[in-house]
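Section handout 9: paired folding examples.
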Amino acid sequence: MENHFDTIHFRHTLEDYHADFHLHERFEIFFFISGNVNYFIEKKVYQLKYGDLFVINNREIHKPSILSNEAYERITVHFDPAISQMFSTESCDLQKCFLDRPIGEKNKVSLNLDQTAEILGLFYRLGRLNQNPNPYNKMLKISCFIELLVFINKAFLRGDNLEEYMSIPGKLIPILDHIDENLDSDLSLKRLGETFYIDRAYLSRLFKKSTGSNIHEYIIYKRISKAKQLIAEGYNATEACLQCGFNDYSNFSRTFKKTVGMSLRDYKKTIQPW
């Protein structure tokens, strides 16, 4: 079971780090330490500050945008959703903060100074246990991880998580809504420009400036995210391909594997009950 989750302490600078949109197969816990970074999750952009905590499920696309050469330092925990499901009870759902909310909403979990210190202690304890994987430490690592999930869900359920984020430019909001609602349609820059009476080059620059990446990559990840949802709901791969705007199955299969990190066949296996 120890291979089903991991905790990593990252430190990068602008010169040695680049990230585009990504979509994990595992759930992610993200804790920001330092840097000059904007963080994009679905349609929101957060200007990160020390102690920011985010929870991200396996359907939410996200990416950091590093704004200076100041070191970008953060702690992440990636884990198989089946673990949190296994240890959940009827009265204590450890997946609640990841799944009991709309996509791209309530990702940020607010912490006070005492809670920030407490969660840092849990992260560092996980890291130490991970460095010495003897049989007893494996059990302690699982125990610490469950304690971390309980801590985050209790903070999430307090109900006073007021998200502070930077607004996407007004001109982009209806375009992003249109993309969400028409993933099976032509979403080329040409068609988007014609639909919204906006110059294609200007649209491309505006999106790049707002997110740090290009709109084509965003659309690809949104389509793959929807495909994952459809397959989990029981649709076959061909149906998911067509409903997500991939008219060529071979291209869909290649793009899915490149984006998700596993083939369609392997992904289907992961959505079976543990």
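Moving on to protein 2 of 2.
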Amino acid sequence: MSDILLTAVALMLIIEGLLPFVVPGVWRETFRRLIEMSDGQIRFIGLTSMLAGLLLLYIARQ
């Protein structure tokens, strides 16, 4: 189980690092816009992201 968790965290870090590595200007502009959003909008984005992850995990496990 710990191997799977470690692999998942490693993949998350790789994916998170792609955007700032490949297109740092777009990454910076995205964070500039994120700062201007309300807490509710940011929470909605987080919820949507978690639900999409759960759906992908469900699909991958079948």
